[in-house]
Amino acid sequence: MFQARFILAVLIILGSALAACSGGLGSGTSAPGGLLPSGPLSGIAPSPSPTPDSASAIVTYGDSTQFQPLPELQGYGGAIALEVPSPRPSGFQAIPIGVTLSVREPADTPDLNLATPGKKGTKRSQRARELIYITLLPTRDITLSSYPRIAVDVPRGIVTTYRVDEINLALFDAGEKDKTFILAAEPHDSASPPPLPTAGPTAPPPPTAIPLSAASAGASPGASPTAAVPGFAPTTAPSPLPSGAKPSPSPSPTLPPQRILFASTPHALKMVANVPVVFAVYAMPMETPSPTPSGLSPAPSSSGSPKPSGSPLPEGSPAASGSPVATGSPLPQGSSPAAASPVASGT
């Protein structure tokens, strides 16, 4: 009898413990008042995507000498033209070349302002501002008879800060075992026009001309006669603004970039497979001599006279003899020399 009561008490204790555990586990499945979000990551603002610092494309060596478009990056772009041998040798094949535009200095590339080799080499006396790097990576060995022609699109904000002749092109060829950049590797080509951009804003289509007979047939008797003129779009008056309202400012037009064309330098360029050739577009202000301020009198002469000798006098001014009355001054019209003299003749 005692054992039966003991077993019953143990079963009651175990049952109450299991009930408490099941209640505690179930209480966490739902939050009071609907505090849990309705969906995954609800209410979290997405982080803006970072601005890319490089863009890549592929150009072909061997198809033609025409300009091929470069990739676009942060307002920069342009086109490149590669020289092709003429006549082409037997077995000549087109070779793809990877082109990368980057606003950061490529790896294993020396500092643009480094004048002598080495990490602690001598810096250039006048610092250049790097704008964009154009890296060419050929898949096979190529020897160009001259440097490629490169047309670079420079944002308008850069052109308004620097003059066009202050923006130049530098070259670093790792295949030639160069240690520094060659500044001003290609001159500006102002004789031939630069190539046109590959894509641009298209003009809106012209208005469709409506036949006069069709417009007259569908017009009401009180319609304006100008509405039936072919190709004429009548202007509608803007709706009046409420009292106290200010007109919204119209967005200012964005100016297109400036395209600068660099001529090919007549010098052979050896390109090794999988070895980069880097062109750097940089800006360097030109040093101009300060002009002499206008209105400054020259240095006094050794004699100490305040006015230099031989200086022309204004018309009608007294002579430089020092007398209060200039000799030989013109007489009034109709007067004689005797009347003009202070002492009468013959006295």
Explain this structure to me?
This protein has 347 residues and is α+β, with helices and mostly antiparallel strands. It has a domain at 54-196 and 255-283. It has four helices and eleven strands. A five-stranded antiparallel beta sheet has the order 1-4-5-11-8, with no helix packed on it. It has a four-stranded antiparallel beta sheet with strand order 2-3-7-9. Strand 2 (68-69) and strand 3 form a beta hairpin. Residues 30-36, 223-229, 301-314, 317-329 and 336-347 have low confidence and may be disordered.
Overall strand count: 11
Mean pLDDT metric: 73
How are the strands of the largest sheet arranged?
1-4-5-11-8
Counting DSSP H or I runs of 4 or more residues, the number of helices is: 4
Largest sheet: 5 strands, antiparallel
Which segments are poorly predicted (pLDDT under 50) over 5 or more consecutive residues? Answer: 30-36, 223-229, 301-314, 317-329, 336-347
Strand content: 15-25%
Structural class: alpha+beta
CA-atom Rg in angstroms: 43 Å
Quaternary status of these chains? single chain
